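Review this fold:
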Amino acid sequence: MSTPSKTGPEAAAPTAGPDARPGAAPAEDQDVSAAGSQLSTAPREDAPHPGLGVIGWARWFWRQLTSMRIALLLLLLLSLGAIPGSLIPQSGTDETKVADFRAAHTLLAPVYDRLGLFHVYSSVWFSAIYILLFVSLIGCIVPRTWQFVGQLRGRPPGAPKRLNRLPAYTTWRSGARPEEISQAALALLRRRRFRAHLAGDAVAAEKGYLREVGNLAFHLALIVMLTAFAWGQLFKSEGNKLIVEGDGFSNTLTQYDDFKSGNLFTQDDLDPFSFRLDTFQGTYEETGPNRGTPRTYQAGVTYSVGAYGKDEKSLIKVNEPLEIGDSKVYLTAHGYAPVVTVRDGKGAVVYREAVPLLPLDSNVTSSGAIKVMDGYRDAKGAKEQLGFQAFFLPSYGGKNTAVVSQFPALLNPILNLAAYHGDLGVDAGIPQSVYQLDKKNLKAFKDSKGQTLRVNLKPGETMKLPDGAGSITFEKGIKEWANFQVTRQPGSGWALGGALTAIFGLAASLFIQRRRVWVRATEGPDGVTVVEMAGLGRSESAKVPEELGDLAGVLYDGTAAPPGADDPTAPADPAHTAGPAEPADSSDSPVAPPEGAEQQ
């Protein structure tokens, strides 16, 4: 059996020889430190030497920039910098909201302008954080990768002179020859997937390289994610188009109702395709607490790719877009488009179209405007323009109910119209919404009571305008419309792959421990073999002593039975005794099983 080691300061600090330099680490401490070297590829963060001047400070700054601490700090700053980009209206996303914010906050708006908070993602400070994070990650991962490749090409370092100074240690005496113990240990460690080899008088083994692989993969994944996000922001595009049943769309800039894109996007990046909305189908819950909730919500389209592509059918559902090239076509909204016919004073048809109206609530109470801009003449033959303020209720509840739809489906459709005539203002060159009437230069038609002429029409009914000014008919064929959002987000696949790789890499770096094991078998003064076994991990963990105890037990059982095994004072298991110990004393029993492997 081995003698227990000393504890306290005397055991930790051997006496230095007469030639030792003041402040120098003891030779044995240096030996143990060398055994644990290169368990990580993390660079050392040394303070700058005062005599190196600018070069020394530059090296120190570079090491700080490429350290994990600074990388995490920059990542935190990047996350914090994105918060105002989500809370404050952005000029590249919604100019109208930015203008409204400026009008409502006259004191804050100039401050936000100076800080670049209306265009966070293209501001100087956000770009600086982004670039510094790139430099930090690249400057960290490149040297560490080369260092790790060098470690893989090399071999685990040899055993320290005194294995009992390592945190996990055990020893026993055996009747087998030292060569047999070494070969058995080498075979055992290799079966346990250690990289093992004979180094001098001991077997050196190492395991857990996937920890550093995960660490490097995590850093690389962050670079991929940042690159993918930047690429996506610079080359992205997003447009919306409202299409009535039977109408079509071609993927060109002039076809969109609104369109926004990244700074490096060009029209040539648009995927060449077109599609037609054939039908829209929407069904709703008719009873219960979820009454009115959509059950089916899908658009049937016919699309083709390229100028001479073959027509193909497809269904576009919520969260199930149509994918064409790098573009995705999402179904985002739905509404109704009543078909109306307007006739002039002589009965000639001057307008016949399906007019999309915008929903105001979940039951699709809708509003909009009907504008007759050209071709209309009044009863006297004078040219004029007509405008109708329209409200549509797909399920009107009757006179004794609120003037809102009671259900989103077409159960009792009513079109409410208020008629105006005059100048719509569309010829002034000033943009205006197609869903609103500019009544500045319009006059309302009056009914017999002198009120604005307003009539509820059912499908097939007609409203006559006063003084033979014409009529408007609500046709029986009510069409539906769907709004589609066409997005192009390059790099999203790379971003997803980077995110998954970062998760697995982080898990590997957290749950896999890199550790080393040494086995030394030497012949004692009494001719009995003394076996020492020690382990060392990058950080203190119960896994290293537990694994060492298991390996020691298997090696002890697999080698020749020692003489004196029947000695009742000898422990029966190689993992009973714990802690670092001095090599076995020849005054002990001839052979003892190995001590348990535990932390000091």
